[in-house]
Specification:
Layout (H helix, E strand, L loop, with lengths): L2 H7 L11 H33 L10
Amino acid sequence: MSRIAQLLRVDLISPGHMISPELSGVRDVLRMRLRLVRKQCRCQNAPSALLAKYNVRSVDEGA
């Protein structure tokens, strides 16, 4: 018997949770939204990072 099965049998670990089929679609949409939001943030920050890398002031910083 595997070690995980033994631990489960004596209640030292809880059984795994499996998401219901009704919620799996929602979970997938939320994961995709999270990826897109992170990508959007990276894209918005990229120009500032590039300017900072070469010690160039952005237009927002003024003179």
